[in-house]
Amino acid sequence: MEEQNPRPGTEQQAAQPEVVLNEKGAHAAYSNFARVTATPEEVIIDFALNPNPFLAGKQEVSVSQRLIMNFYTAKRLLSALAMTLQRHEQTFGSVELDVRRRALAQPPGGPGAAR
Questions:
Q1: Among 66, 61, 28, which residue's Cα sits nearest to residue 47?
Q2: What span, in angstroms and rounded, lies between the C-alpha atoms of 40 and 54?
Q3: Which residues, 6 or more positions from 41, have their beta carbon under 8 angstroms from its beta carbon?
């Protein structure tokens, strides 16, 4: 009698649990600054609010949140962020990181100006 082997990954997909998020105790915060560092075992992401992001010279920025994760979780986060940014750019256009180019691309009157 010949054994039938299911396709690779089929058993894993069926065995994945459904994850339901409980957001009752979640803390939401805005961040316009992130610093990523790592150890051989973990990735560390510090988030902060920089009130003067275009100020030249030394600035002190207080870290408000720190996420520490293993490299597997970091890679899944990278993939999820990349897909999210790709969908956003397909819908709304390129996200320009260079503030000088962004300023030149603004319509007269700036963002949100009545047309």
A1: 66
A2: 33
A3: 70, 71
Residues sharing a CB contact under 8 Å with residue 62, sequence separation 6 or more, in sequence order: 48, 49
108: tokens are: 């007269």
CB of 47 within 8 A of CB of 31?
yes
Residue 43's DSSP bridge partners are: 38, 69
C-alpha to C-alpha distances, 15 to 8, 26, 107, nearest whole angstrom: 13, 28, 51
Task: State the Cα–Cα distance between residues 32 and 90, nearest whole angstrom.
Answer: 23
* Backbone torsions φ then ψ of 67, nearest 5 degrees: -105, 130
Digit-coded pLDDT (tens) for 70-86: 999 999 999 999 999 99
Q: Is the pTM of this model over 0.90?
A: no
pLDDT at position 56 is: 86
